[in-house]
Amino acid sequence: MSQMPQLSACPSCEEPLESGDRFCGACGYDLSAVPARPQDNPTITMNGSVPVQGAPAGAYPEPPAAPPAGAPWPAPGPDGPGTPGGSSLPPGTPPPPAAPPAPAAGVRFDRPPQPDGYAGPAEVYRTQPDEYPLQAPDPRVSAEPAARAAGAGGKVCVACRAGRVDDDGYCENCGHAQPRERDHMEQESGPVAAVSDRGLRHHRNEDAFALGTTALPDGSPASVAIVCDGVSSATRPDDASAAAARAASETLLAALPRGAHPQQAMHDAIVAASRAVNSLAEEPATAREHAPHQNAPACTIVGAVVTSGLLIVGWVGDSRAYWVPVDRSAPPARLTEDDSWAAQMVAAGLMNEAEAYADERAHAITGWLGADAYELEPHTAAFKPDRPGVVVVCTDGLWNYAEAAEDMARVVPLDAAAHPLHSARVLVGHALDGGGHDNVTVALVPFPAVPQGAGSA
Length: 457
Known about the structure:
The protein has 457 residues and is of the alpha+beta class. Helices cover 19% and strands 18% of the residues. It has a 6-stranded antiparallel β-sheet with strand order 2-3-14-13-8-9. Strands 4, 5, 6, 7, 11 and 12 form a 6-stranded antiparallel β-sheet that branches. The protein has a two-stranded antiparallel ribbon with strand order 1-10. The radius of gyration is 22 Å and the shape is globular.
C-alpha cells in the first residue's frame, strides 16, 4: 500500500492544511486520494549543451537549404512508430544511447503515480467512477446553432448545448455550472487549428498550444503550431506549458519573415521556450510556498512549421508529431522520437515497442524544458513530402489512444486537411471515448499539394 504523502497545502484549492488532516477544511478534498510524490531525480543529461544567445558565427551548424529534391518520403519503420518517420537534421546528431539510463538518473515522471504505483491500461480507468461529472463539451458536436439561439456574443452551455449561460456562470436551461476557460480551448489561425481539453480525470488542464501564420521573405505562406504538456509532478505545470508555447510561437513568427531557415528558427524557438520556463523558477519564493517538495516548473514541447514544400518539426519530451497523407493508400509516419524511458529501452534493443509502453515506467521522461534540465539539445528534423497531407501535433493524452502511425491515420478524418478544426475535435473526442485519463491537446497543420515541377533541377 502506498502511504499518504505529507502535504502542506490542498492540491485542489491550495489552502493551507494542518498536520494529520484527512480532508481539506476549505473544500472537503479527500487528501488520502493524493498519491505520494514520485521518487524522481531532477537531473538530466541530453545530447549536448545549447550555445548561448549571441554565440559567435559558426557555433551552430549551417542548416541545409532543403532536403535533396529527389529524396523519397520516408516510410515508417518495420515495427511501426518505434522508428521515427525520417532522420534528424542537421547531420552529426549523436545516435541514441546504447543502453537506457537508470530510472533514478535523468528521469522524471510526467504525472503522479497511480495508487500502489500501478499504471494500468485505459480499460482500468473506465471502470472507475468519473471524478468530475461535468466536463467540457463533446468536441465533435458543433455549438453554432445554439450560439445563434443564444444571441450574438452569448455563451452556450457545454452540458446541454442549448441554453444560454448567465453572467454568474450557470446555464439558464439546465442549471449546470460551466467549466473554467482553460478546461476546453479551441482556435483557428488560417489553415491551422487546435483543440485542448482537460480530459476526464485531471482537475485542471496543464496542456497549452499556440498557433500562427506568417509570410516568408518571398511572400509564400508559413504555418506554425506549438503544443506543450506540463509535467504534473512539477510545480505550476500549467504556467510552464503556457509560457513555453507562447515564447516558441512568438520566436518563430518573428524569425521566419526575416529569412531565418525554418529549422534554425525552430531550434531557437525551443531554446526561447526553455528560457521562458526557466524564468518561472526565478520568481519570488512565494510562488512555490504551497508546494515546496516539488520540482521547478517543467513541460514538454513539440512544434511544426509548414512552408511550401518543406516541413520542419522540433521537440523535447514525449509529445509527438505525425504525418498523415491525404491519400490514405500512402503510408503515414511518426516524425518524432520520444525522450522517454520506453523509447530508450526500445532503442537499446532491450524491449520491443509493446513491452516498453506497457511498463509502468514507460512515461518517465528523459528530456523536458525546465530549470532543472541542466543541459538541453532541441531535436529538429526537416522533411520534404511529395504529396499533400496533414501534420498531427499532439500530447500523449491523444497518442496514448492512437500510438502507431497507422492507428493515428485511422482516426484522423479523411477531410482533415480541409476541415482542421472539426478534425481536431474528432481526435479529442476519440481520446475522451478511450478513457480521457490525461489532458488532451492536438493541433492540425495541413501540408499543401506540392506544385508541379517543384524541386526540379
